[in-house]
Amino acid sequence: MAKHKLERSEIQKAPTGIPGLDDITNGGFPQGRPTLVSGGPGSGKTLLGVSFLVNGAQQYAEPGVLMTFEENAAELAQDVRSLGYDLDSLVSQKKLIVDYIHVDRSEIEETGEYDLEGLFVRLEHAIKEIGAKRVMLDTIETLFGGLKDTGILRAELRRLFRWMRDRGITAVVTAERGEQMFTRQGLEEYITDAVISLDHRVHEQISTRRIRVVKYRGSTHGTNEYPFLIDRDGITVLPVTSLLLEHEAPNQRVSTGLESLDEMLGGKGYFRASTVLLSGTAGTGKTTLAAQFLEAACARGEKCMYFLFEESPSQLIRNMRSAGIDLQRWVDKGLLKFHADRPNRHGLETHLLAMHHAVEVFDPDVVVLDPITNLMAVGTQSDVRMMLTRVIDYFKTRGVTAVFTSLTSSTQSLEATESMISSLMDTWILVAVAEEARKRNRWIYVLKSRGMSHSNDVRAFEITDYGVRITPLDKGSPAGKPLSVASGARRTPTPTARKRK
Amino acid sequence: MSDNFALRLYVAGQTPKAVRAFSNLRKICEEYLQGRYSIEVIDLIENPALGRGDQILALPTLVRRLPTPIKKIIGDLSNTERVLVGLDLRPRPPDL
Predict the structure, then answer these.
(1) Which fold has domain A2-242?
(2) Which of B10, B21, B72 sits opposite A108 (nearest CB)?
(3) Which of A248, A340, A459, B14 is deepest in the core (most CB within 10 A)?
(4) Residue A335, φ and ψ in degrees, nearest 5
(5) What are the residue boundaries of the structural domains of chain B, listed by start?
(6) What helix, strand, coil percent values describe chain A, rounded to 5?
(7) Interchain proximity A111–B79, CB inside 8 Å
(8) Higher pLDDT among residues A254 and B3, named by residue
(9) What's the whole-model pTM score?
């Protein structure tokens, strides 16, 4: 990738191992230097620092020392355990040392000159004991509450940071956000190599965590605010604007799961790693079409991830069974995974970040987002477009074929699906319903499909107990009555399928 | 007062501050605690692991192990009045 070329002239980096953060910092924190991480209470600074240490110890053979100055040190181990970090096991493997220093002003009398050599000795001892390369100080500012002589304290902190630099220690120093400054005690004055700011904001009752690289000496870095997520797999930053338009466009084709639909798409189906939009009014069978594609993909042994924003997985499985598609067996085989979430539960960024993360972990070949329109209601138009661009770029770089369903309201023109998303789609298939002779007949056509010759016919589309059927309108059936080619019960959609929307 | 004072002085090497703190401590003990005190000097450079137990951060630190509760006094102990207050041998004056 192009960005790696820059690194030659840049300073050495210590990778954080936090997905996304190494992208926006161009490789990690400055090696052998301290990095300041500032943020308000609950902004995730401690977790970020602990991730840096744990990943260093586990992935980069760099043992670490965690020096905590917080009052309730026992809570720390518990907090990080909820992220899947087992500090005790790292400690017993001699990859990590956790040391607590708590200073309570009420039990200390100060008289005459002193220094913080005790801290230096303990730190040095811990570093030597396991050959530590990384150190985290969390939150050293609490010392200002424990010691009266801030003159000594400031001089000693300055000495401490220089001391760590001299030893080539990559350090993360956490600090509380101050009112005027980045930190309450102005630590940014001492740590000038790299400053990271964390933020936890609530807008319209939806909370989003954001991270920003305020300063990074001797390195290029992303300057935007990036959303990040803390879940049981740790921290993930969505580094989206650093992605370039450089993903490969494979020529490989994948079947839609329907020979008749493949035929409309140049006889071969979708392009792998392309984006497919299935749009239509309520109850037209968009989900069924998507499920048909999943069925075929799973049958080929590919992994699929289904993001649901409206129905529960069991409801979807039941409905699809009535159309002859058994998704449960793919779930049982571990090939299909559902990810159901209410659209208004989080902000758009958190949703997309969660998707990003889920895809990273499960590594699917195919994803379905059903319906994307529900998600679009969560943010403003420009936000939605930016986020979708990001997530689509991400899918494409991973070679994931993505299917989006979009609900058009019946008062809109059929092709009115938000122009902002259609331009992001490589293939756009429309499903419509026309009421004729007291029957609702479904139609399907391919509005566009980049990079292939595709049919411009409008064809009849029906959902039977055995799946979807697409038939030409002209041959063998009188125009306008496409369903007459089917006979008996087959031609009417099953009641459940019709009730779906 | 029959209580024995078990005192521990933490230092890191023979620094001027450490030497000063030790001689100040000896003087104070001889004057106010004669015959009922013991002083243990712990050099963290020789025994760095011992700093953990008493949560040592600043040096020199004097720890009153006995009588309980544990008390800590940091600095070179040059202000005798403050040391006496810190060891609970004097009531705390309002300005301290």
Answers:
(1) Rossmann fold (3.40.50)
(2) B72
(3) A459
(4) -90, -20
(5) 5-86
(6) 35, 25, 35
(7) yes
(8) A254
(9) 0.70
Domain ranges of chain A: 2-242, 253-499
Q: Per DSSP, which regions of A123-247 are E strands?
A: 134-138, 170-176, 194-203, 206-216, 225-231, 234-237
Helices A45-59, A73-81: axis angle to 10 degrees equals 70
> What is the SS3 string spanning A245-306?
CCCCCCCCEECCCCHHHHHHCCCCCEECCCEEEEEECCCCCHHHHHHHHHHHHHHCCCCEEE
pLDDT class of A10 with cuts at 50, 70, 90: low
Which superfamily does B5-86 belong to?
Glutaredoxin (3.40.30.10)
Q: Tell me how close the Cα of B96 comes to any Cα of chain A, in angstroms.
A: 9
CB contact under 8 A, A122 and B45: no
Nearby residues of A281 by Cβ (< 8 Å), 6 or more positions away: A407, A408, A409, A410, A414, A432, A433
Q: Which CATH topology does A253-499 take?
A: Rossmann fold (3.40.50)
Give the mean pLDDT of A316-340: 93
Q: Which of A71, A111, A148, A154 to mutate to test the interface with B (most CBs of B within 10 A)?
A: A111
Contacts of A108 in chain B (CB under 8 A): 72-74
Q: What is the pLDDT of residue A120?
A: 94
Cα–Cα distance list, A67 to A82, A97, A120 (Å): 20, 8, 11
B11-23 pLDDT, tens per residue? 999 999 999 999 9
> Of the candidates A109, A121, A143, which has its C-beta nearest B45's C-beta?
A121
Instruction: Name the amino acid, one letter, at A39.
Output: G
Return the number of other C-beta atoms located less than 10 Å from residue A206's C-beta.
17
Measured CA to CA, the distance from residue A210 to residue B4 in angstroms comes to 57
